[in-house]
Amino acid sequence: MENRQRLADRIDWGLLFILMLFFIVSAISISSAQTSGQYATNFVIRQAFWYVVGGVIITGALFFDSDQYKRLAWYAYGIGIVLLLGLRVMPESIVPYRNGAHSWYKISESVLIQPSEFVKTFLILALARVITNHHEQNQVKTVQSDFMLLAKIGLTALGPLALIITDDLGTALVFIAIVTGIILVSGITWKIIVPIYGSIAVIGGTIFSLVLYAPDFLEKYLGVDKYQFGRIYSWLDPYNYTREEGFHLIKSLNAVGSGQIYGKGFNGSEVYIPEAHTDFIFSGIAERFGFVGASVVISLFFILIYHLTKTALDTKEPYNAYVCAGVISMITFHVFQNIGMTIQLLPITGIPLPLISYGGSSLMGNMLALGLIFSMKFHHRSYMFSSDNS
Fold first, then answer.
1. Overall pTM > 0.70
2. Which residues does residue 113 pair with via DSSP β-bridges, in sequence order?
3. Burial class of 356 by CB neighbour count within 10 A (0 to 12, 13 to 18, 19+)
């Protein structure tokens, strides 16, 4: 009985309860989106299946502790690189052309797996190992050692980033967010971080200004075609691109605005929203359940991020802390980008809303990342008991 009690104490019941709430919200949101008649498939049942698979992934993650994850990090990273390379060399029968890119492996007619969703977690594991090993080897911090660490982080991220940036800009941005979040907690001096990210901000702002006010300059001297700026133009002024990139954004804004305070009800959809059960599920939530429903969803994400942050602060393992930082950065950026694009705060990218949007790869990838968090609590408890008993 005592062993059972100890095993129960090692489970992160708070995080498990949060995931149950996400499943309920996801099921209700997807079911409501299906009332528009856009698809004949029952995606709620499929989402429930992927949640079960995610539960199996989390259970499997509990069998490994932080030391084992640290040892396996480079193997996982290597597998991720191989999977991303396979997208470029495999025949179209295995890697179909879908949504303008070769980003999926075809398992069956109805099952497609996007490896980049798992590579995010593999990258987090590898970066955490790079930083941990660097600090173990460099007990005395210097500017030179910090530059070396930054170079190691950059080289580690370069491989997967280079393999996806041309086909999947949205996922590439998630990778950049993960790297940025981990760098901020890596211990690198702000004397390096501020100038580097300040320079990146200036360069980015300059390019953005050129896109808006001098596109001919970019086309003439950098060879960039003007049509590639359509996503930015449609983001800033969607009503002049109603038949092109601005179509999705206009529909999303109409849905979010028409929901008002309490929404139109479960079956109250009046605005046609493409991909209402995936990338634009938040628009459907805002229309059907209004400001109140949207606020509940956002609050649930705040609770999740708070819980992950608390786990990072409570852990005594530096490696675990860096892993937590990567997972927090990944989920936070996903939420900010997905919700931001539905309300014109950010440009539209193909990034789903974590744990709520329908999608097997996305859900399994997030469950794998959260499985690492469950493992931290599980094995932290076991270490405590073994220490007490020694």
1. yes
2. 105
3. buried
Element (DSSP H or E) covering residue 113: strand 112-113
Helix, strand, coil content of the chain in percent (nearest 5): 70, 0, 25
Which of these, 232, 200, 238, lies nearest to 215 by C-alpha position? 232
**pLDDT tens, residue by residue, 121-153:** 999 999 999 999 999 998 888 899 999 999 999
For the chain, list residues with pLDDT below 50: 1-4, 381-390
Burial code (b: 16+ CB inside 10 Å, e: under 16) for 357-389 equals bbbbbbbbbbbbbbbbbbbbbbbbbeeeeeeee
Residue with tokens 């959260």: 370
Asked if 197 and 188 count as a contact pair (C-beta separation under 8 A), the reply is no
CA distances from residue 344 to 113, 171, 251, 286, 331 in whole angstroms, order as listed: 29, 19, 11, 14, 20
User: Which amino acid, residue 40?
Assistant: A
- Residue in 377, 385, 281, 270 with CA at minimum distance from that of residue 18: 377
